[in-house]
């Protein structure tokens, strides 16, 4: 899969899951935590990349009423939901636009803060994209990002991926496998561009969900792209087999969702 096909796949997947995306509580929990890491300053100029349904941008806007926020994403469907949420909440200081982070048109040193919630690991040429993002930051500006830990979503994600591999020879795209799941991997990325200070904090996000909720999560996040490669009869068989193996290790149909998160704050 080349870069154009990969990006189209990402856009298509998130268009499909947009209406169910916010059912995953960890996105809202993480957005609050990420927004709390911004500096306490008036009239911040903020760029939120891969804004999705706008959780991070909206949380920042509620905390920083005088901020000027640009929020971009590849998915038109996600942006429409984000804009509707902001309108319903009467938040006027976010401008949503469909844009590719690799083709940013902002001038150098435009923003005080750039935020990126659970998305840096999706970018095909992550190091080049990271440097492009840094270029848009003012001297002393901050890039604040989140990513999942190695343990996040396990053991259920491992069961999911192992069965897809063994039964249907499907694997995660090489572009995103195992990216940014540790402090060391964040450090390696950050060192590709000059910086002044790096802070990385691991934050636990855990709560009980049902086996049916787990299947819903798989259908309302990036995992959906793998399920979409199955034929209807294959999908039905996979759902039966996978939910059965998750149920076997559940507590009367309930499992603990681990969405533990790394928050990375880089000051240039």
UniProtKB/TrEMBL annotation:
- Tell me the ranges covered by the Methyltransferase domain, including all copies: 42-166
What biological-process GO terms show up in the record?
menaquinone biosynthetic process
Q: Give the matching SUPFAM superfamilies.
A: S-adenosyl-L-methionine-dependent methyltransferases
Pfam families membership: Methyltransf_31
The GO molecular function terms of this record are: methyltransferase activity
Any idea which UniProt keywords this protein has?
Answer: Menaquinone biosynthesis
Q: What is this protein called?
A: Methyltransferase domain-containing protein
Q: What is the species of this protein?
A: Candidatus Thiodiazotropha endoloripes
* Taxonomic lineage: Bacteria, Pseudomonadati, Pseudomonadota, Gammaproteobacteria, Chromatiales
């Amino acid at each position: 899969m080349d870069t154009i096909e990969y990006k189209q796949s990402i856009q298509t997947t998130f268009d499909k899951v947009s209406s169910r995306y916010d059912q995953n509580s960890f996105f809202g929990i993480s957005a609050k935590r990420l927004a709390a890491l911004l500096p306490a300053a008036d009239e911040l100029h903020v760029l939120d990349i891969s804004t999705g349904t706008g959780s991070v941008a909206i949380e920042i806007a509620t905390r920083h009423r005088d901020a000027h926020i640009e929020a971009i994403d590849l998915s038109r469907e996600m942006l429409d939901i984000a804009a509707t949420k902001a309108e319903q909440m009467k938040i006027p200081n976010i401008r949503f636009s469909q844009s590719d982070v690799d083709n940013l048109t902002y001038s150098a040193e435009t923003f005080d803060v750039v935020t990126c919630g659970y998305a840096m690991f999706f970018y095909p040429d992550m190091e080049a994209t990271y440097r492009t993002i840094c270029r848009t930051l003012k001297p002393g500006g901050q890039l604040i990002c989140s990513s999942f830990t190695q343990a996040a979503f396990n053991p259920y994600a491992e069961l999911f991926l192992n069965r897809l591999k063994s039964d249907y020879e499907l694997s995660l795209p090489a572009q995103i496998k195992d990216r940014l799941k540790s402090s060391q991997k964040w450090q390696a990325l950050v060192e590709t561009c000059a910086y002044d200070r790096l802070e990385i904090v691991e934050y636990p996000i855990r709560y009980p969900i049902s086996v049916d909720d787990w299947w819903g999560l798989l259908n309302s996040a990036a995992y959906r792209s793998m399920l979409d490669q199955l034929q209807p009869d294959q999908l039905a068989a996979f759902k039966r087999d996978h939910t059965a193996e998750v149920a076997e290790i559940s507590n009367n149909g309930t499992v603990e969702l681990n969405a533990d998160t790394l928050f990375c704050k880089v000051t240039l």
